[in-house]
Amino acid sequence: MLITCPYCGPRDVIEFTYQGDGNRQRPQPASQNLDAWNAYVYDRLNPAGDHNEIWQHSGGCRAHLRVVRNTLTHEISSTAFARGDHNSVARHRAEDKP
Amino acid sequence: MVERQSPLEPVLHPGSHGNFEHGVEIILSETRPGSILQLAAWPGEEKKLMAGIHAVTGLALPDGAGGGVTNGARSVFGFAPGKFTVVDEAEGLAPAFASVVTSAIGTVTDLSHGRTAIRIAGPKAEWVLAKFFAIDFALPAFPIGAGRSTMHHDIFAQIQRTGADQFDIYVFRSFARSFWKALCHASEEVGYEVQ
Ligand SMILES: [Zn+2]
């Protein structure tokens, strides 16, 4: 299985680490919504077909990637940087300001 | 200045080795640069970091993933989005960046004592490296100056092409001796010289 990293190009799957289901919506850390936390931890679509996933190119550029993989054929139909999905860097830096 | 010890010292044996009756087709050496730095830009600050690298080293980075350039004494290449490895024969490169790469632009990490630089050269360099790494070493796919991040089993490696048939490989210092021995074994069948 080859995954085409947006930075490094096509690389063998051995260079990548699976970081889990890309459909999960993590509640805010202070959330006490137990249904939301339960869904985040346990609910999975488990599709027989295209699946949104997060992978890290841990044996290469170390970027986190948003990957669509077909669970029946292992075909990778798209890859993109995960950075920017939640604008996390910008948000944390904004919060750091006094 | 204190002489820096090499982790390769017990296994680096100058001379010709392996199947060299018809000449050596690989030359292995340790380049022992004085400075090996990792520079990282905050999101959106990449161009300023590249300008800073140009100001300090005189090396103009090309645009594009894995782009790089070398002038022999100094080398730089991208190894990840917004991140660059900068190498200098001389020690003391990190302080030169202190006033250029400000905390608003990014970070400078001095890895001079944490990495070992191994050079593989010769007409079979591409061929030997292809036994280690599943990436395309052909010149059109991997131009001179360019860098690649990859791994051989668990040994993470940054590779820069510094000549048509020459590559500089940066590995963790603690893996360097094992990796060097593997490179020697892989070069035996074509004949190699250690310099
Ligand atoms: Zn990558």
Largest sheet of chain A: 4 strands, antiparallel
How many domains in all of chain B? 2
Distance between the ends of chain A: 47 Å
Q: Which strand order do you get reading across the main beta sheet of chain B?
A: 1-12-2-8-11-10-9
Class by alpha and beta content of chain A: alpha+beta
Multimeric state: heterodimer
Radius of gyration of chain B: 17 Å
The rounded Rg of chain A comes to: 15 Å
**Count of alpha/pi helices of chain B:** 4
CATH fold annotation of the largest domain in chain B = Gyrase A, domain 2
Q: List SSEs of chain B in N-to-C order.
A: EEEHEEEHEEHEEEHE
Q: What's the pLDDT, averaged over the residues of chain B?
A: 96
Q: How helical, in percent, are the residues of chain A?
A: 10-25%
Please estimate the helix content of chain B: 10-25%
Tell the overall outline of chain A: globular
The end-to-end span of chain B amounts to 24 Å
Provide the CATH top-level class of the largest domain in chain B: Alpha Beta
| N-to-C series of helices and strands of chain A | EEEHEEEH
Unreliable runs of chain B, pLDDT <50, ≥5 residues?
Answer: none
List keywords for this structure.
heterodimer, A: 98 residues, alpha+beta, Folate-binding fold, 4-stranded antiparallel beta sheet, two-stranded antiparallel sheet, 18% helix, globular, B: 195 residues, Gyrase A, domain 2, Alpha-Beta Plaits, 2 domains, 7-stranded mixed beta sheet, 5-stranded antiparallel beta sheet, 4 helices, 12 strands, binds zinc ion
In short:
Chain A has 2 helices and 6 strands, in the order βββαβββα. Chain A is α+β, with helices and mostly antiparallel strands and 98 residues long.
Topology:
The complex is a heterodimer of chains A (98) and B (195).
Chain A: E1 2-5, E2 9-12, E3 17-21, H1 34-42, E4 50-56, E5 64-70, E6 76-81, H2 88-96
Antiparallel strand pairs in A: 1-2, 3-4, 4-5, 5-6
Chain B: E1 15-17, E2 26-30, E3 35-41, H1 46-57, E4 68-70, E5 74-80, E6 83-88, H2 93-97, E7 106-110, E8 115-121, H3 125-129, E9 147-152, E10 155-163, E11 166-172, H4 176-187, E12 192-194
Bound molecules: zinc ion.
Residues 5, 7-8, 57, 60-61, 63 of chain A line the site of zinc ion.
